[in-house]
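Q: Hi! First time doing this. I have a protein sequence and I read that you can turn it into a structure. Is that right? Here it is:
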Amino acid sequence: MNLHRVQGIRNLSDSTFILCFEKNDIKFVPGQHINVGLPGEDDRPYSIYNGVKDDHLEILIKEIPNGYVSRKLKLMEPGKFVSVDQPNGDFTIEREIMDELPFWLICTGTGISPFHSFVASYPGLKYRIIHGIRYSNESYEHKKYSDGTYLSCTSGDKTGDFNGRVTEYLANTDIEKQAYYYVCGSYEMIDQVYDLLIYKGISKAQIKTEGYF
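A: Yes, that's right. Below is the predicted 3D structure, encoded as structure tokens:
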């Protein structure tokens, strides 16, 4: 674990925020995650949120009630230090398939983080994001995505683009047979979406999943 100086915090909601800190010598592939914590204390894995060419690192964090690490990180101020491990994980897009087919990026909550990194890193990526959230104020920085590429599924109110869960949207939508499907969120959601995609004729080779951090 190495020390990285905090540059700032961007609050997206009462409980969700982006922690920005120095990149130093870290090199990552979009979709990877890093362990972050306070020096000498516990750490947690978080998917990298920002683009690969940025000169800093960002992680998207939801403060967990009684969660030790997330509460501590929310109190960080510019100039303080966090401990950061080297990037890890293979929830990435192979360059040889990047231009072949469109990508359906399906997620819940902060599971959108690796997809934000994809979009920020690969300007020519053909994609659409299906984001499951409870309320529309959890559609984190959705205006950064190209028009018509982001769709929110809200289960707690009727303010989203679709009223219901991600699985309900997919069950009632004609999906593309010629596309890649990346799924990031709770393990329960991943299992349900995976089974639904297989049922609709998507091959296992077209699906990639990761339980969110």
